[in-house]
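Justification of resources, computational component.

The compute hours requested in this renewal are based largely on the per-chain cost of generating structure records like the one below. Each record pairs the submitted sequence with a full structure-token output. That output is archived, and it is also reused by downstream analysis tasks.
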Amino acid sequence: MIKIFRNELKVFKALVQELPTDHKVYVEGSTVGHIAFHAAQSANTFLRTHVLRTMFERNKPAEFGEPHTLEEVNKSLEMAIAACDEIESKKVDLMEKLASPIEMIAAGYTLETNLDALTFNLLHLSEHCGELTQVKRELKA
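The structure output for this chain reads:
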């Protein structure tokens, strides 16, 4: 699972390199940079805080409240890729219970294990990869 997650982070990073970070994706103002930085920060939160149980300081309001450069996005994605490497090298037990279960209130379920957390965040990353793939198509049209 962690190999798949790392690969998808690399695919996402390659995609982001092809897009202008200041390109507006949604009417309310979200840009490619906002979406990419949010996806990277979310990955870091799940990988570092929940699975590795290390400190990761996330400023969620800033993810969509401030513009983000390609350099910022790349740094965050590289941190997430490094976290995958660390999870793999430490041979983290994916069936281990999370220190604190994560209630997904709107979805009606709880993430209880490392595998649950990785699966949820991989789906989240895939959602944003799909969004930005569509932006790429639209920009080429």
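The domain at 2-140 is CATH 1.20.120.450 (Four Helix Bundle (Hemerythrin (Met), subunit A)). Strands lie at 97-104, 109-113.
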